[in-house]
Design a protein that fits this description.
Distance between the termini: 35 Å
Number of strands: 10
Domain Peptidoglycan binding-like: 291-344, 486-541
Radius of gyration: 34 Å
Signal peptide: 1-19
Number of helices: 21
Keywords: Signal
CATH architecture of the largest domain: 3-Layer(aba) Sandwich
Number of domains: 4
Helix content: 40-55%
Shape: elongated
InterPro entries: Caspase-like_dom_sf (IPR029030), Peptidoglycan-bd-like (IPR002477), PGBD-like_sf (IPR036365), PGBDSf (IPR036366)
Structural class: alpha/beta
CATH class of the largest domain: Alpha Beta
Protein name: Putative peptidoglycan binding protein
Length: 548
């Protein structure tokens, strides 16, 4: 799998091998789309003591995946195998069967397909540390707060594949930070012995009690003997393979033009060039699209009637197919991966389409209201019961539906007052049951009853519901699948209110008034008039407020 395109600067230049001690220290505490941590940035307290101990320190806090990649690139370029390496990280970690990752501060619920682009692989960091065997420490500070990942990724550290000669320390963020600050810079002390004073920390990998991490002044750095003179180049090549981009392979060749793996590197470059999809995939990954940005792209596709099969910020098969269809229609190479110019073009088209749809909807609404008002003048405006019921039968959600309903109440009250006791009892019984059979039974038993008109209206309503029960149930299930939260429901009601469709209270609860307003919206836009939201209706309804 080709990923970590943001690390393409890893091998960008041929630099001299760094012979000194180098450290990478990062504390990610504030996450844009996840739970913040409490002690992660304390790791930065170790920077000054490590510098005093002779380390060149690369450091940062609350770093995005791109910024992390830059520091890892710089670290890799400075590690030559003759000095010591310290990698100290605190923040959120994720794991799966394929490895573990240190999460960038801008990560947004990445699943297994996206986690590599929003994180730094601990496997890559272990490979870098392995180039200083016997003098490499990886310290990882964790906290109990979990990060929300997508499918295939779990929160926290998984099983670590620790290379030979690398010491790994894990534990609570604050304690790991104190250990890095107070213990790692002490000369003449081994990692194994130092950990005896820190019961909250766990040491694994290379734990030699007699081998100090920083020897006393004048002592040579501990180096595990290398039988293989090409070990450094092999380790470098392994990192290049992990990054797996054209830039990485080209950088390997720049450093090792006649290296052991030069032919493999050139073959990989030719393979990437021969497969436009790989280039397109790497180009999209380099954009580091957030989950919200992906949702905007999916909304735009849906608005343009390229169904992405969900607006969830995850580019699965449905989204890729929709992107390909859009690219085909617009004269682009149909890769299924977007470029920045394509995103801008898609957004502009969606904006124009949203405006066109609103203009069309307004014209349809005006025409429907014209017919509605004309029928009201011909039937319900006079105020007689027959005319009011005729209006409501044709326009149950019409402009004057509420007025007609209110004007019918006195007729019912008067009829009830005049009705015989037995007739009232029969009608009350029918209403209490509320079924089609109950209302039909009332009409059959009381053909001249005072409530026959109401019964026939109820029969027509229930017959419509029965005839369309399947469609209405499906529409309800489709709305439930959208998983709308209270905020989104209030946005819907507020939009309906701004359109003059009378949704009732803007409170995030879809009551009868809300359903009627949704039906009015759907009818004006020639959408299926169910009163329930689906993806198409939701996108149309919120286009003005979401896509801009």
């Amino acid at each position: 799998m080709r990923f970590r395109a943001s690390l393409t600067a890893l091998l960008m230049t041929s630099v001299p091998v760094w012979a000194g001690d180098v450290a990478l220290v990062v504390g990610n505490e504030d996450y844009a789309n996840g739970r913040d941590l409490s002690a992660a940035d304390e790791m930065l307290d170790a920077v000054a003591p490590l510098e005093e101990a002779g380390f060149e320190v690369l450091s940062g806090s609350d770093l995005t995946a791109g910024a992390l990649a830059g520091l890892v690139s710089e670290l890799n370029a400075k590690v030559g195998g003759s000095g010591r390496v310290l990698i100290a990280l605190s923040g959120h970690f994720g794991n799966s069967l394929s490895g573990s990752w240190f999460v960038g501060a801008d990560a947004d619920g990445p699943d297994l397909g996206a986690v590599a682009a929003q994180s730094v692989s601990l496997g890559v960091l272990m490979d870098i540390a392995a180039r200083a065997p016997g003098g490499a420490v990886v310290a990882l500070g964790v906290e109990e707060a979990e990060f929300e990942f997508g499918a295939g990724v779990n929160s926290g550290l998984g099983d670590l594949d620790i290379p030979q000669g690398v010491s790994v320390i894990t534990g609570p963020s604050g304690d790991v930070a104190d250990f890095a600050k107070d213990a790692l810079g002490v000369k003449g002390q081994s990692i194994a012995n130092a950990l005896n004073a820190w019961p909250s920390l766990t040491g694994s990998g290379f734990m030699a009690p007699l081998v100090p991490f920083l020897p006393s002044d004048g002592a040579a750095p501990p180096v595990v003997a290398k039988a293989d003179p090409d070990a450094e180049q092999k380790a470098f090549w392994k990192v290049t393979q992990d990054i797996d981009t054209m830039d990485a392979f080209e950088a390997y060749l720049k450093r090792h033009p006649d290296g052991l793996f030069a032919s493999e590197a050139r073959a990989e470059i030719d393979k990437i060039k021969a497969e436009p999809l790989l280039l397109a995939e790497q180009g999209e990954k380099a954009l580091n699209l957030s989950r919200d940005r992906r949702r905007e792209i999916q909304r735009a596709l849906s608005l343009l009637e390229y169904d992405p099969k969900g607006i969830d910020g995850i580019f699965g098969r449905g989204s890729r197919a929709a992107i390909q269809k859009w690219q085909n229609v617009n004269g682009e190479t149909a890769t299924g991966f977007v470029t920045q110019p394509q995103i801008e073009r898609l957004g502009a088209q969606a904006d124009r389409r949203a405006q066109e749809l609103e203009i069309e909807a307004e014209k349809r609404k005006i025409e429907l209201e014209r017919k509605d008002r004309a029928y009201w003048r011909a039937t319900g405006q006079g105020g007689d019961e027959t005319g009011l019921r005729a209006y409501l039968e044709r326009y149950p959600d019409g402009v004057f539906a509420e007025i007609a309903t209110a004007r019918l109440e006195p007729f019912e009250e008067a009829r009830r007052a005049a009705a015989a006791e037995q007739d009232r009892a029969a009608w009350d019984a029918a209403e209490s049951v509320g079924s089609l059979a109950a209302y039909e039974g009332y009409v059959q038993a009381n053909p001249e009853g005072a409530f026959v008109e109401q019964a026939r209206a109820k029969i027509a309503e229930l017959e419509f519901e029965a005839k369309n029960a399947g469609a209405l149930e499906a529409a309800q299930r489709n709305e439930e699948r959208l998983g709308l939260n209270g905020t989104t429901r209030r946005l819907v009601e507020d939009r309906l209110e701004s359109l003059g469709l009378k949704p009732g209270a803007v409170d995030g609860t879809f009551d009868d008034d809300s359903r009627r307003a949704i039906r009015r919206y759907q009818e004006a836009r020639n959408l299926p008039r169910t009163g329930f939201l689906n993806q198409q209706t939701l996108v149309r309804l919120l286009a003005d407020s979401v896509l801009r």
